[in-house]
């Protein structure tokens, strides 16, 4: 962390903040508190301007080309799973999906729309990792399902997707402002990618229509088909990711979630 001390000075207390990618730290001194990260995407500035993430305070480039960002370090907490039903969650996700500013910025950063073929191709390319998961029957049947349905879930509307709408990425500040954080894996994709993960994990199915109306749409069968396809594909992707990192307990949890989705729709 010498690079942080060089930037901030020796009177700051710096502690690791964890995170799945990059390097993130908390820093504080005499009433000032910051959240710092190395090599965050330039996308962060637009997210800050839109009020979707805590305010960006400054950005600095190191001699080696690395970029350090500093955001407000806010008092707050992650949402509880049952709080994901709240209309504010639907409202913020709708704001993100309908933001032309966010979409324009991500496209300028070189993100091309993610298609179902891209998603399936990545899963199959890394299938040997999934073959390590036990039991494998759900894995194999889910891949077959994705292959069978891939042509039926094509969609020509693409938006900025967060790609990990897990409840612990939603931050409620002490001032009652809701944020969606950790944008390292953001993509331009079908909004059903975000919606499928969120609804399947947190919203009882008899509340889906109400939740989606608060989000701003009246869902149809095609939307539900796409949500199911993406929820299964994301479950497989997360299983792969945790397996590669040696996080086998997390991979097992994701496998159980996948199994529930498959059973729910009588795919197995």
UniProtKB/TrEMBL annotation:
One of its GO terms (molecular function) is kinase activity. It comes from the Bacteria. Keywords: Kinase, Transferase. The keyword Coiled coil does not apply. Residues 17-229 form the Aminoglycoside phosphotransferase domain. It holds the Pfam family APH. PANTHER family: CELL CYCLE REGULATOR CCRZ, PHOSPHOTRANSFERASE YTMP-RELATED. This is Thiamine kinase.
């Amino acid at each position: 962390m010498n690079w942080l001390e060089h930037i901030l000075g020796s009177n700051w207390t710096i502690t690791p903040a964890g995170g799945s990618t990059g390097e993130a730290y908390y820093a504080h001194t005499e009433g000032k508190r910051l959240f710092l990260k190395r090599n965050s995407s330039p996308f962060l500035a637009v997210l800050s301007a839109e009020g979707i993430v805590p305010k960006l305070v400054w950005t600095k480039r190191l001699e080696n080309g690395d970029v350090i960002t500093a955001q407000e370090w806010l008092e707050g907490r992650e949402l509880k799973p049952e709080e994901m039903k709240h209309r504010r969650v639907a409202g913020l996700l709708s704001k993100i999906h309908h933001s032309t500013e966010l979409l324009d910025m991500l496209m300028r950063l070189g993100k091309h729309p993610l298609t179902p073929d891209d998603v399936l191709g990545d899963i199959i390319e890394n299938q040997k990792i999934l073959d390590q998961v036990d039991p494998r029957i759900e894995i194999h049947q889910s891949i077959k399902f994705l292959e069978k349905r891939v042509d039926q879930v094509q969609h020509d509307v693409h938006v900025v997707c967060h790609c990990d709408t897990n409840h612990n990425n939603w931050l409620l500040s002490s001032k009652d402002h809701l944020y969606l954080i950790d944008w390292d894996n953001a993509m331009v994709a079908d909004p059903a990618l975000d919606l499928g993960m969120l609804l399947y994990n947190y919203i009882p199915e008899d509340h889906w229509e109400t939740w989606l109306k608060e989000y701003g749409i009246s869902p149809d069968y095609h939307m539900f088909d796409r949500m199911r396809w993406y929820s299964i594909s994301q479950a497989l992707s997360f299983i792969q990711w945790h397996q590669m990192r040696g996080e086998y307990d997390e991979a097992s949890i994701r496998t159980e979630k996948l199994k529930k989705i498959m059973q729910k729709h009588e795919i197995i």
